[in-house]
Queue: 2 jobs
Job 1
Amino acid sequence: MGSIVPLDLSAYHLVCLAACETAVTGDQTITDEYVGLVSAFLKAQVGCVVSTLWRVESAASAILVVQFYRELQQGQSPPLALKAAQTFLRTATRADLVQWLDWAIPKLPRSLSLILEETKRGLATMMETEQPYSHPYYWAAFTLSGL
């Protein structure tokens, strides 16, 4: 974090930290440096930062982040794109997800495709109308800071 703060990142409008607990600051006491990754990027003048409040499940995170960037490409602002991606993940049925995965998997890097192919196989055992990611655990960890 100390290496991020002095940088001038004002040319970057968005940083997406889709790993576990990236929005959580360390457990230092109040007398210690109390800067988390999000604060460091904002101090370095990044426009906004997407981060997570708790450990996130890999496949759900991948789907949410890919959908977030898809929403951005369609002209949504970062807050609306994040909300739309969260709503998609929260409300998507098994059938919706299979269709989405069929679209996404060929477009993604191999390492991400492998995770999502495994997820697609797991969806095969569910009912068409089941919403596997409706629980807030899967989508509510993502937050947007800045702007």
Job 2
Amino acid sequence: MGKIIKDNATIEVHAIKTNSSKEVEQFRNYTNSEYHERVKDTYRENHINQTVEFVEKMEREVCSLRKTKMSLWEALDVLDEVVDESDPDTNMVQTMHLLQTGEAIRKDWPGEEYDWFHLTGFLHDVGKLLVHKKFYSLPQWAVVGDTFPVGCKFSKKNVFPEFAEENPDSHNALYNSKYGMYPPNCGLDNVKMSFGHDEYFYQVCVQNGCKLPIQALYIIRYHSFYGWHHRGAYNHLTNEQDRENLKWVKEFQKYDLYSKDDGNVIDAKSVKL
């Protein structure tokens, strides 16, 4: 996947803090947030439609990367018109979210040796451009929201687990057991995740020879896998490499989540310069 950072085993963990007026406990409110109905509807469609068949179709049609070519800043211009309808915390456009995440990491992790971490914060959600009419025009449920393994039993530690009962794979004996179609501890590299912006942009990185380290690629690929990194689900599918890189995904998650602040507007032009 990429080069390994030698001090990975001794990562310095920073305390959780927010950059907004909300307390930590107020984030990821899937009960009665300001955007609750929008979020609930997005997850309903996601959990019903994210099947093994659908994921394999997206792998063929989208992850082949045959649609177009664009620069990073052209992609960010597209993201300036994208709002994540699965997010209960904010209604900001995704370009601002990327700027806030990257800047929050840069402040806590100064120094050139962590440039890759700053850049990962700035890039991690670029794949959400899949929803835009200038690109694939995919429905939000196929791009945003928490991800989870398909082809095995859906964990109740995922958000809105009740909607998974309507997914046809939940009634398929090949896919509805604990391990489903996977051997124990096969490693996440061998697991098909529900399709979304994580997997898409991971494929963009690896298919274009990206030089980001393995820790960055784990963050890009699994930052939305909250059932795993936030709630400890699906550990029976992970291997040693997954467990080693989990610490970086968990560290990143704090900045991805708690940097959201509708009142903190960052000037994209000044960052670009």
